[in-house]
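Dear support,

I submitted the protein below through the web form. The confirmation email said the job was done, but the results page showed an empty box. After a refresh the structure appeared. I'm attaching both so you can tell me whether what I see now is the final result or a partial one.
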Amino acid sequence: MHRSKAAVAAALLTALVLLPLAVAPVAAGDSKDKAKAEHERIVKYWTAERIASAKPRDFVRTDLGKFEPKAKPVQPPPAGGVVKGASWSGAGPVVQRTGKVLFTMDGGNWVCSASAITDGRGTHSLILTAGHCAYDEVNKEFATNWTYVPSYDTAPTFSCGQNTYGCWTATPASGGGLVVHSGYANAGGFNTQATIHDFAVAIVAAGTRGTQLDALGTYGIAYPAISTGGTVHSFGYPAQGRYHGNDLTYCTGPTFNDQYNGNGTQTWGIACNMTGGSSGGPWLGSFTNSAGTATSLNSYGYSGLSNMYGPKFNSNTQAVFNRATTTTGNSIVN
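What the results page shows now:
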């Protein structure tokens, strides 16, 4: 029995519609291979020369800069037990849970700091850093070539294949991504609004050696977790002035409000002389050599003051974290 032309056309149309379903598994495999290739491309991008020439993306307020203090900043007297910047000699988990960030933004290569935070994901891990170490608030673009290197001070001769723990990349093409809040993304510059929302979470898949970052240990995160006067330990890799960027450095002491920013109660301060490169490093409350909770992070400073300032973690921080636990790719949270 001969089929009509209409019936034959209908049959061909059905076959064409069903064809993509037949090749979907191949596409998924290709996607995984492409993510691995992109990860390897980024790792190779960060040569020793590029790392050496990368600049800290940090913000310091001056009378002539983007921030105008309401009055001349006054240095608070240091409290007992304060450490304003010293090499961390305690070893332990904090070394492998804290690292250096390398990224490209606005045509240049930059460095910051970051830390691994606890998450419930089985296929990805999460890294806490500053918003300005993930997103260009002026050009409204996410960072590229974003790479995290834990325990950076154990790898002064840089090689992701040879250093202590390897590297993790956080770009959509490599299977990861960066998440920031719209309060930061829409600030239009590094201003008071930006400082209040200066936090980001990076999503990373397996690292150089095919393992999850969680295996090195993580810190919890809380919003909020401290009040004025609460003691924190701040960690980072400062790379300017007296610091060279290859040594995990810490400060510790009580928090106080930055009276010169916004309404005077919107961001935290601690006595700390860490310099550029430490941005994004964690402020850990209830810290011991093996435990701690991320409560803020290194964000900005004032010229002439030996203080570090950071955002107050809140529901907006939680929204960024929650988004990072359920997605991949770059994302701006409203």
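Response: this is the final, complete result; the empty box was a page-load delay. The chain has a mean pLDDT of 86.
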